[in-house]
Amino acid sequence: MKTIFDFNPSENELNDLFSNSKMNKDTYLSEFDSHAYKWDLCLLFHIRNDYQNLNETLSKLDPLTRQDFYRTIEHT
Fold first, then answer.
1. In the predicted model, what is the mean pLDDT of the chain?
2. How is the chain split into domains, by residue range?
């Protein structure tokens, strides 16, 4: 399963996502699960305005999680 680290996030993006620009892949994999991987990918693609990858990843989320994602980004 892909994670944000497969898309080479910048320090600024890591800081935006986790308030920690020093987050690394090993720590991420040990602290999060596959549900979080998809959610964080959506957030990364949203930050990047990468709508193609965002829509592709959103389609893999269950409907309630997708709805939560939209609610989250509306309030940020």
1. 94
2. 33-76
